[in-house]
């Protein structure tokens, strides 16, 4: 049942020009950043280089992919629930023998499709160098996983925001607000402090950084799993409350 | 008869008002129940609760013996629901949408093709399977909405204003479809159109302010001629006293300037009344039995409630 709902969501996303437009724009911007990284890296003498090309790609190309995905994902999730509320199509799911968990997981899996494609874009660009230079593919694989996990977190936040209102545009703005908050929540802390505060822990970029350096830590994986679970649980609660009126 | 739906003490409260209270209902196979009532009477709230889209504040709903609150997935397999606004995705083609609905209703994969063809045949959608739903006319969209509600051949079909916005030919088709459905299942539907309910339903329930004001079996209720009561039209119009003075007339009541409801004394035949009207030169142009049609019952009840 989850796959049935996911397939319909995936189809609904790709039938609209928004997804294609976003993918094209993201591919174009990433290609430009990719060329900038290469140009700067190749223009430096070996002694001036502070990091290898793989690290440079990770810190610039892959990290910027998450920024693009933060901007794109709310536009894809905004209609997922609020559109159903607005058009009254949620009644079809509500009267079918399907649980709210199945509905949410189906929709989450649906948004995971375009997120996966978006997350592959920097890896495809890096692959174009494979015949010319030696890259650390393990590091790039870890960075891709990090980009995917960030995308999935944004998807869960977007889905929760989408459950809050029947106005898709409003839910996109709400999702942006929550994502910006999750991005800057640690900025108020004193820099250089070694203590890991709750705010540091809550910020997704702190966790992404380790993936971009090729380090896959269980604690970072746990962070993404917990936060994705939290936002899906909040969305579930919201849908359950909606039945109460 | 097998009981398909049993509702006891259903209640739905919102913060400031009660949308439904003390609602009891039983539906058996072969029955068609019409829910009537003015706007805001609680019809849609009631159907949304019965379809599992809204939780009741109190009460119990059993579909084919399965508790909708405790075992929603199993109970929902037995019901089909067409909301007031058909739940359609305009970007999908009719066949895709119906196949999606069939999968949501957990029809086994191998049976989906057959279920889809049957639903399309019942709803007159045979020629539009490849069309985008967004490009269909309102009538066809309504048919697609009905098709998704019956594709899994549910035991209980809930239709919220299924004929809304349809032309007379389409209304007749929906009427035939409801009769076909009633042969194998129970049907509940709401409507504003009283003759519609009269034509389709075996039972009627009139709601107002969330309460059931009246419930009756239509097979016995409608068009029943109250003995001794007739409607008379005269041309030119005459005063009421010209009728009350006729021998055999127990009472008369003016409905309009030229139309009257006449009650005859016990044992007085209608032909005697006709003869006397003609003899007195009152210009009789119509003499019909006065029937308790649904419209009359509906307004009598609502007016009675208002007066109270």
Order of helices and strands of chain A: HHHHHHHHHHH
Shape of chain A: elongated
Helix share of residues of chain B? 25-40%
Most extensive chain contact? A-B, 24 and 31 residues
* N-end to C-end Cα span of chain B: 37 Å
Low-confidence stretches of chain B: 220-224
Strand-residue proportion of chain B? 25-35%
Helix count of chain B? Answer: 10
Give the overall form of chain B.
elongated
Let me know the average pLDDT of chain B: 84
- Taking all Cα atoms into account, the compactness measure Rg of chain A is 19 Å
Helix % of chain A is over 70%
Order of helices and strands of chain B: EEEHEEHEHHHEHEHEEEHEEHEH
Give the strand order, joined by hyphens, for the main sheet of chain B.
Answer: 6-7-8-3-9-10
Number of helical runs of chain A?
Answer: 11
Biggest β-sheet of chain A, characterized? none
What's the β-strand tally of chain A? 0
Radius of gyration of chain B: 24 Å
Mean pLDDT of chain A: 87
Distance between the termini of chain A: 26 Å
In terms of topology, how is this protein built?
The complex is a heterodimer of chains A (245) and B (308).
Chain A: H1 2-15, H2 17-43, H3 53-77, H4 82-86, H5 90-95, H6 100-127, H7 137-162, H8 168-184, H9 198-202, H10 204-212, H11 218-244
Helix pairs in contact in A: 1-6, 2-3, 2-6, 3-6, 3-7, 3-8, 6-7, 6-11, 7-8, 7-10, 7-11, 10-11
Chain B: E1 3-13, E2 18-28, E3 32-36, H1 43-50, E4 58-63, E5 66-67, H2 72-76, E6 79-82, H3 94-104, H4 109-122, H5 138-150, E7 156-160, H6 168-184, E8 186-190, H7 194-200, E9 203-208, E10 211-217, E11 225-234, H8 241-244, E12 249-254, E13 259-264, H9 270-279, E14 284-291, H10 294-307
Parallel strand pairs in B: 3-8, 3-9, 6-7, 7-8
Antiparallel strand pairs in B: 1-2, 1-4, 4-5, 9-10, 11-13, 11-14, 12-13
Helix pairs in contact in B: 3-4, 3-5
């Amino acid at each position: 049942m989850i796959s049935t709902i996911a397939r319909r969501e995936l189809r609904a996303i790709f039938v609209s020009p928004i997804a294609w437009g976003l993918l094209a724009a993201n591919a174009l911007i990433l290609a430009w950043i990719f060329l900038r990284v290469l140009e700067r890296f190749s223009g430096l003498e070996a002694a001036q280089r502070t990091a290898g090309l793989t690290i440079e790609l990770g810190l610039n190309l892959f990290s910027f992919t998450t920024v693009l995905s933060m901007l794109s994902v709310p536009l894809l999730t905004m209609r997922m629930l609020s559109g159903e509320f607005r058009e009254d199509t949620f009644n079809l799911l509500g009267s079918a023998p399907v649980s709210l968990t199945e509905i949410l997981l189906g929709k989450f899996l649906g948004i995971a499709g375009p997120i996966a494609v978006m997350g592959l874009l920097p890896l495809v660009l890096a692959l174009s160098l494979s015949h010319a230079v030696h890259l650390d593919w393990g590091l790039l694989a870890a960075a891709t996983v990090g980009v995917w996990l960030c995308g999935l977190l944004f998807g869960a936040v977007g889905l929760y925001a989408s459950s809050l209102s029947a106005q898709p545009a409003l839910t996109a703005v709400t999702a942006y607000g929550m994502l910006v908050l999750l991005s800057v929540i640690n900025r108020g802390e004193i820099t250089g402090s070694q203590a890991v505060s709750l705010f540091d822990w809550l910020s997704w970029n702190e966790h992404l950084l380790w993936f971009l350096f090729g380090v896959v830590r269980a604690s970072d994986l746990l962070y993404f799993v917990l936060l994705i679970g939290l936002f899906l649980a909040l969305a579930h609660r919201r849908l359950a409350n909606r039945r109460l009126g | 008869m097998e009981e398909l739906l049993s509702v006891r003490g259903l209640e739905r409260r919102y913060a400031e008002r009660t949308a439904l209270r003390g609602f009891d209902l039983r539906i058996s196979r072969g029955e068609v129940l019409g829910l009537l009532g003015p706007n805001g009477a609680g019809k849609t709230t009631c159907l949304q609760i019965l379809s599992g889209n809204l939780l009741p504040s109190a009460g119990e709903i059993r579909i084919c013996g399965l508790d909708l609150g405790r075992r929603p997935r199993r109970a929902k397999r037995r019901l089909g629901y067409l909301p007031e606004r058909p739940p359609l995705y305009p970007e999908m083609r009719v066949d895709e949408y119906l196949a999606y609905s069939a999968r949501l209703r957990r029809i086994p994969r191998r049976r989906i093709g057959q279920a889809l063809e049957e639903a399309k045949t019942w709803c007159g959608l045979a020629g539009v399977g490849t069309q985008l739903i967004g490009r269909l006319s309102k009538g066809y969209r309504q048919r697609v909405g009905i098709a998704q509600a019956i594709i899994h051949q549910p035991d209980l079909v809930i239709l919220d204003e299924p004929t809304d916005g349809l032309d007379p030919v389409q209304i007749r088709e929906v009427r035939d479809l409801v009769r076909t459905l009633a042969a194998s299942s129970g049907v509940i539907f709401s409507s504003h159109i009283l003759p519609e309910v009269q034509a389709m339903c075996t039972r009627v329930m009139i709601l107002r302010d969330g309460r059931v004001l009246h419930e009756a079996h239509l097979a016995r209720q409608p068009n029943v001629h109250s003995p001794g009561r007739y409607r008379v039209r005269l041309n030119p119009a005459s005063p009421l006293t010209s009728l009350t003075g006729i021998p055999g007339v127990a009472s008369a009541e003016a409905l309009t300037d030229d139309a009257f409801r006449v009650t005859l004394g016990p044992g007085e035949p209608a032909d005697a009344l006709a003869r006397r009207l003609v003899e007195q030169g009152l210009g009789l142009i119509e003499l019909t039995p006065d029937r308790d049609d649904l419209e009359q019952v509906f307004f009598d009840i609502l007016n009675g409630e208002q007066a109270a």
